[in-house]
Amino acid sequence: MINKEFLISNSHKVILKVLGKNDLPEVNFADKEKLNLFYKEFISDKFKKKSFILDQVHGDKFYNSSKLDDKILIGDAIYSTYLDEILIVKTADCMPIFFWSTKEKLIGLIHSGWKGTALGIAEKLFLELKKKYSLESIQAYLGPCIRQNQYEVGEDLKVQFPNETHSAFKEISNSKYLLDLKKILQQNLKNHQIPIQLQDDEICSKLSSEFYSHRNKETGRNLNLIYMEKI
After folding, report:
1. Contacts of 224 (CB under 8 A, 6+ apart)
2. Rounded (5°) CA angle 203-162-109
3. Is residue 215 classed as helix, strand or coil in its secondary structure?
4. Domains plus CATH for the chain?
5. 8-63: per-residue pLDDT in tens?
């Protein structure tokens, strides 16, 4: 498990967690709707807080938690401005991007695999938040995900990205590459003048024994959580 806390002035703190193989019950739901509902109820019961989870589809749709109520909608990112609301994102190699404001009540979580990164989900969400919040006060953390030295992809995936991002693809053989998805994320943020620096413990989901990895043919999912509490 990853467990981090960040003190925000004298009013509240931000807590982020990543629950992996040793922290979650084994589940065998083929139905994604039932699986999402199970995780939502499991987290609410475990932490005694209201929780929000999305039906993730590797897209670029995001929500304010206040628009969700108890519904589980299609999307890949969520943010909240309320205390005691747990936001949940499922991952098993994709990037979980946690973020929070150091000045205001604002937290969020983004699920960004190669498709979401190509669609620019992180930039789109931050640019939307920029209309109301100072991006200079936002910090971010990149949770366990697959890292470049383990992320082999083909030419068919490379062509999904613009030429200016191709330095993130390290060629290892004819039409085979190692992809640095974090590098593309950082470049996209920079190109949109989004001044957010990523904290990163550089944990590789494929190499870690603690976390699930799709590339390792594991069917489980890591649960990434973020919430705010009063001090």
Report:
1. 16, 17, 18, 19, 88, 89, 90, 91, 96, 98, 109, 143
2. 40
3. helix
4. 2-230 (3.60.140.10)
5. 988 899 999 999 999 999 887 778 889 999 999 999 999 999 999 999 999 999 99
How confident is the model at residue 31, as a pLDDT?
Answer: 83
Smallest CA-to-CA distance from 16 within 200, 187, 189, 212 is with 200
Please give the structure tokens belonging to residue 80. 């909240």
User: Considering the entire predicted model, what is its pTM?
Assistant: 0.96
Nearest to 138 by CA among 150, 154, 149, 127: 127
- CB burial of residue 69 (10 Å; 0-12, 13-18, 19+): exposed
Mind listing the pLDDT tens digit for each residue in 34-49? 999 999 999 999 999 9
R_g (Cα) of the chain, nearest Å? 17
